[in-house]
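Do me a favour: review this protein, sequence plus structure tokens, and tell me how the chain folds. Record follows.
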Amino acid sequence: MEFNSLSEFFAMGGYAFYVWLSFGSCALILVGLLFSSLREKRVLLQQVAAQSAREQRIEKAKQQEKQL
């Protein structure tokens, strides 16, 4: 498809509403997926840090128990 001007490109031969709606919804979904993934990564790293801290406290308590 060939466009003679920028306005013809944005009009998309009369199908602009459908074309730009599909591009916009796809972009919105991808941005949502990005933010969701970043949030899940942060939560997972916090859970790993908490688990590690628990394991260290348990190990320290075991060592103190052995010393008594």
Notes: The mean pLDDT is 93. The helical segments are 6-11, 16-67.
